[in-house]
Amino acid sequence: MKDADSAENNPDSKNIVIFPVSCAIPNRTENSPKLSGKVPEIRIRPGSYLHAFYKKDVVTEEFFCNYEVNPEFEGSIIEAGFAIAARGENGEIRAIEAPKHKFFIATLFQPQLSSKPGNPHPIVVEFLRAASKWKTEKTEDAVLE
Question: What's the CATH code, domain 4-144?
Fold first, then answer.
């Protein structure tokens, strides 16, 4: 889409793929983004990378944002080769992934907010595993050449 954009950057675009969050989280800190704080029900799609990382169907995650994926573009996202990996309690897209990519996950929640020393977030752990595996493969390829 030539004019795909976000409402934050270009509210006059014909194709607003990222638009304002549809509902606010109650009891959030004053003046914080509409979607900020812990969201207790993020449903993870079985068979997704995220499901393999979490080993759970439902998780609680932390958010700090005012924008989300416009549901009108869900079909376009899937046609482009992405899979919806997680949804909010009202079906909102909360994460997508590229199943054919070694490691591509985009989340609306922010894993770094709940990752702690000694207890890193599952996405952070799996990203580091994927990076280590990639480095090992590249090193082996260089040796073979």
Answer: 3.40.50.880
